[in-house]
Design goal:
mainly alpha, elongated, 10 helices, 2 domains, Hypothetical protein af1432, Methane Monooxygenase Hydroxylase, Chain G, domain 1
């Protein structure tokens, strides 16, 4: 890959980044992590890998504007047309597009090429550990979802209760807690595992800290209200 080609990919990525949870620094972390993982794998096409890493979230804007859209699919289509319009080969555009299409955690299609698997792992690593917690909180704030839900009896839900609405706790229990067994490369799994405890400790501490005021405060409130009747 020439420096000029890299700048073409990078500048297009920068023009598409409007989401603070999926900003340019997220892109760079994913790319740098992907390059580290690639050192432990064979027959990696670094041109495809770097381009796919840089462009993997260019479809985020479309998903924000229409939540029914999948940013991975939208991004794959955008990347393909962008590469073709800028003189890159059909084969290269297709390979990059396919990596992007299969990078999403909730996607039905699974990554097949080594470049796609590395991108998937590098992107998922960025939702593990402390940085994953921080990014999830930022994203939940962006879309207006709460930290937690409260049940009909007034207790704080832990993210596992049936019918519970979207929240940080629900996202942690549904996705973040379970992501550590979803890696395709040995190095990716190893890096993610080293971050697991930090995320688990944060969740447990936060759950305890938000539950205590509800459990104790409601009793105090009942006494005050009764005493003033």
């Amino acid at each position: 890959m020439t420096r000029d080609d890299y700048l073409i990919f990078e500048n297009y990525m920068l023009s598409c980044m409007e989401d603070s949870a999926h900003d340019k620094e997220h892109i760079y972390r994913v790319m740098y992590m992907a390059l580290e993982i690639a050192q432990t794998e064979k027959n990696v096409d670094y041109d495809v890998l770097i381009c796919a890493c840089l462009l993997h979230d260019v479809g985020r804007k479309e998903q924000f504007e229409d939540p029914k859209l999948c940013h991975a699919q939208a991004g794959a289509d955008k990347a393909y047309h962008f590469l073709k319009e800028n003189g890159f080969s059909e084969e290269f555009a297709k390979r990059v597009s396919k990596c992007i299409r299969t990078h999403r955690f909730r996607a039905e299609t699974q990554p097949e090429s080594i470049e796609a698997k590395i991108l998937f792992d590098a992107d998922k690593i960025d939702v593990t550990g402390a940085v994953g917690i921080a990014r999830t909180l930022v994203y939940k704030g962006q879309v207006g979802e709460p930290l937690y839900s409260v049940t009909e009896d007034g207790s704080v839900a832990d993210g596992t209760m049936k019918g519970e609405g979207p929240s940080f706790f629900q996202e942690y229990k549904y996705k973040l807690e379970n992501i550590y067994t979803k890696f395709y490369t040995a190095r990716g799994a190893e890096i993610a595992k080293s971050r697991q405890e930090a995320a688990a400790v944060f969740y447990e501490n936060m759950l305890r800290e938000v539950r205590e005021p509800y459990e104790k405060g409601k009793k105090y409130l009942e006494r005050v209200v009764e005493n003033n009747e």
